[in-house]
Amino acid sequence: TDATARLDPHHDIADIDRRLFGGFVEHLGRHIYDGIFEPGHPAADDEGFRTDVVELVKELGVSTIRYPGGNFVSGYRWEDGVGPKDERPRRLDLAWHSTETNEVGLHEFQAWLDRVGSDLMLAVNLGTRGTQEALDLLEYANVDTPTTWTDQRAANGRETPFGVKMWCLGNEMDGPWQVGHRGADDYGKLAMRTAKAMRMVDPGVELVVCGSSGRGMPTFGSWERQVLEHTFDDVDFISCHSYYQEHDGNAQEFLASGVDMARFIESVVAIADTVAATKKSDKRIMISFDEWNVWYLHDDQGGQNDKPEEKGWPVAPRLLEDQYNALDAVVFGDLLITLLQHADRVRSASLAQLVNVIAPIMTEPGGPAWRQTTFFPFSITSRLAHGRAVRVPVSSGSFVSAKLGDVATLNAVATVDDEGVSLFVVNRSTTDAATLRVDLAPLVRELDREVSVAEAHLLHDDDLYAANTLADQTRVGVRGADATVDGDLLTVELPAVSWAAIRLA
Ligand code: AHR
Fold this sequence. Notes:
- One of its GO terms (biological process) is L-arabinose metabolic process.
- This protein is α/β, with parallel strands linked by helices.
- It has 2 domains: 4-8 and 391-504, Immunoglobulin-like (Sandwich), CATH 2.60.40; 17-384, Glycosidases (TIM Barrel).
- Helices cover 25% and strands 25% of the residues.
- The protein has helices at residues 51-60, 106-116, 131-142, 148-155, 184-201, 222-231, 251-254, 257-278, 326-341, 375-384, 441-447; strands spanning 2-6, 12-15, 22-24, 64-67, 91-93, 98-100, 119-124, 166-169, 206-209, 237-244, 286-294, 346-352, 361-363, 369-371, 388-391, 394-395, 398-401, 405-408, 410-416, 421-427, 434-439, 453-459, 479-480, 483-486, 489-494, 498-504.
- The strands form 6 sheets. The chain has an 8-stranded parallel beta barrel, surrounded by 6 helices.
- Strand 19 (410-416) and strand 20 form a beta hairpin.
- The radius of gyration is 23 Å and the shape is globular.
- The two termini are 27 Å apart.
- The mean pLDDT is 97.
- It binds alpha-L-arabinofuranose.
- Alpha-L-arabinofuranose is lined by residues 26, 69-71, 171-172, 213, 291, 352-353.
């Protein structure tokens, strides 16, 4: 089928906040232990971090990294993870039915972040703990005056503060599975008190209050409204979390996931702005989409879901080790397009997660590390999307999603920076290839010169379910896209179920 679009560099959405390309590392399964940290591995450095994993994380291009959870944080005592290693306690982790050895804590994680070149985003425990413990951690991490906590930090090897900017006020407190789960009113008041007190310690922090764990939560909407009624003046962001998967082999429905994400974002923006209106405030609460990915969470496909409680209390068990296929990667690319399309209000996002646990990077203990299919759309988008996000309306066909109604077959966004323009586009059709013709006239006029294709990447596999595995680590990758510029016209060929990134310079 034929599709047309127009790329006008003045159709701005917003400047892109680099924090849109964040990640998330939780003490969960083999993420830390036997993932990023494996002393004894041939590629481990003197502190036990796998250098092959560090290189892959750098290639992925992750800005901020949210830590240490997730569900894990709601039972975590941060003090367990600092101080002499041989004195650190072993604890039960109720969230993932595991044993936490605390070999890695705040200092070690910061040391790893220094290697990968990413910034720390911390979550405080508002499940089993409260305001005081959040203040203790903030003082330990960010304060520059000698106190008992900051003296301990120095004694533990860190004279200068960590200077952590972004802080999450708990995790998924709306979820009945969460240790210390609370109702919206209860949580809203606790988050408000904690936020006010944290700002007394460090007025420079940016605070994220928990939104819903998903648009499908029974409390979705009323949760956001009630929580923001309490916290509106004291926080900067509200979180969104969302995971997508193919159900019952219905690839077409799965390919509509980007539209679901867009509706989620737009609903939360509407609620946040309604609260602003009732408060007669011009303040705009931004979204931290701090958990997003494909995750085979529901067991209707015969089983990538895990039941940790059936495994006892192991250290670093294999949990949530989803294997991603070509179809997953195309949907994933569309989720990135959707985040960029909402760059005016989504000012931070975290791919959940990074290594081994629903991750773009996999490792084997003592063995190799490799890229899953989802690695490619992330690394390419993070590398090419700079400057401003720009709307690219596409005229294409549509299909009917049982859940979402009419869904456009093609979806695109562009970014414009000083050196050039990047176009990201997905073909969501399971049956039809598309020829996309993009009118570049407004761009060529603005630049006052012709443009040409500098890079063109295509993610597509005739076998939608092809994946990269330990046995075949490079089965799926990206190849050159068929993209040409002729004068004012860019033509891109998009096979059914494909994602492409084109760089014009
Ligand atoms: O990312 C895996 C889990 O998903 C996180 O721990 C939790 O916050 C969410 O439910």
